[in-house]
Amino acid sequence: MPAVVEVTAGVIARDGRVLICQRRLDGHHPGKWEFPGGKVEPGESVDACMRRELEEELGIDATVGPVMWTTRYRYPGRDPIVITFFRIPRYAGSIVNRVFAAVDWISIAELASVDFLEGDREFVDRLVRGQRHLE
Asked: To which CATH superfamily is domain 5-128 assigned?
C-alpha cells in the first residue's frame, strides 16, 4: 500500500481577495496555481508545517486558523496526498515571493477561471460556490 503524503495549504484573504501562487516552470506541475503550503515533515504537526511553509515561501509569521477543508487526491504515478486547507486569519511581516513564479491576490469569483492544481480544484469549487467562507 502506498504511503500517504500529508500536505498543507494556507488560505490568506484580504479585502475580499485570496492569495494564490503559481508554480515555477522548472518543477512539478509547471505553471499551475495553488495556495501556499507544502509537505509535512516527519514528526511535524500539520499546524507547524503550515507555519513553516508560509515563512519559507512568503516570509511571514502566520497565525494558523481553523481547518477549512481536508481532501485526498492522487496524481498519476505518485503516492496519494491528503491536503489540509487552513484559514490564515492574520500574519506578521510583509509577503515576499521567495519560491513561486508569481503570486497574486484574486477575487473568489475569479478563482473559477484559474488553472489550479487538480488536488486543489474541489476546494476552489466549494469556495466559488460559497460552501466555504474566508472570514
From this structure: Nucleoside Triphosphate Pyrophosphohydrolase (3.90.79.10)
